[in-house]
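Everyone, carefully examine this protein record:
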Amino acid sequence: MLSIVLKNILQLKISVLLLIFDNMSLWLQSIHQQWKGLHPTTRSIMLARAFRSLGQGALVVDLTLYLKALQWSGFHIGWVLSLAGIMGALLSLVVGISSDRMRRKPFLLLYECITMICSLLAFLTAQPLLLTIVIVIAGFGRGANGAAGPFSPVEQAWLAEEVLPEKRGKVYSWNTAMGFIGMGLGALLAIVPAFVHHHTLTLQYGVLVQASAYRPLFLIVTVATLCNLYLLYRAKENYNGKIVRESHPQEVPIRRQENKMLAGLVFLNAFNGVAIGLTGPLISYWFALKFGKGPGEIAPMMAITFFITGIAAVFTGNISEKKGIVTTVVYARAIGLILLLLLPLVPFFWMAAILYIARSALNRGSVGARQALTVSLVRDERRGLATSLNAVSMQLPQSAGPSLSGWLFSAGNLGLPFYAGAACQAIYLVLYSRFFKHQNKPITNPS
């Protein structure tokens, strides 16, 4: 009798696995067909994001651990990341507006060249001043999900060029997904220092890998930038600079409405930026302090986080087409807010890892949908401005977070940054749902 029951259970498990495999196969075939339907330029920009995210994934895990191994204090680490955020925010505003007046492709090529030079310098030296300058210029360790740092407004504006307005929610979510999947692969590479180091330094909070073992990770960035230079150089751009429009009376209300939307976006992003800055850039450092873990444990956890967030981004794009961008963003991030409050309370690494993974999928899986909303608030010739304002209004408040969090973490307060971030996130969600409630449908081109 028992053997019959076990046999039936085994057959049921096999049937369920076959059903899952068939559904996954159909889903992957559908994704492949939709990918082939994208414009070649769109595919090139998205592939460049995937390559770029490899290095970002490795460094978002290991940069703070590397600096920690170099005996940098928590405040020093946070200060450098904050300075990088301020630098990126100011530069992104200039770059975005300039790209509206000229073209977008040259700016991205310039960014890749700068990043390649910085990665080589970081590989060759650990001299504190030079390493600080390189981190600030290139924005290493900030985990931009494959975005082109301060040049990301250019990337987003160019990506919109060959995508129909009603398809932007899905395409931008796919773009986000590719970034997260690349970050996941990069995070797996972040395990390497745990295996190649020659000896460890035992401190009161655990075991640290020798600092020199981290430096080869910067070569991942170098190789990725070379691939991106090839992809982006071959990509076509139709936009030739700002469109000169004749002055018409109807132009005034259109521009006034666009400005109103952008002003609201800037105001809301301030709260979101503070929340991200308090809880995001130093998360690996937090796991190391609270649980005494190193790259061997943190890197696989981060890799799983990025992979699942990438899958969540794809589903978010599909849901946003049916339920609307605003509804999708608000509900997903509201659940993520609850998980953020629980994160500093759990006593075990595995519990914190599960909460962090789930929160990331819900919170960051909606990034693409929010970017699609941003580029659709204005006409084509103002997309660089819109994406720049979106970036600056996030990055400037965000840049204050790492310094404050680093100081609190060094003082032994491992919970307050999460609670403060949750409060800012709650304000953001309430205001976001109210201000953009009329944008909760497939968006048409404002031009």
Summary: The two ends are 71 Å apart (CA to CA). The beta strands are 200-203, 206-209. The longest strand covers residues 200-203.
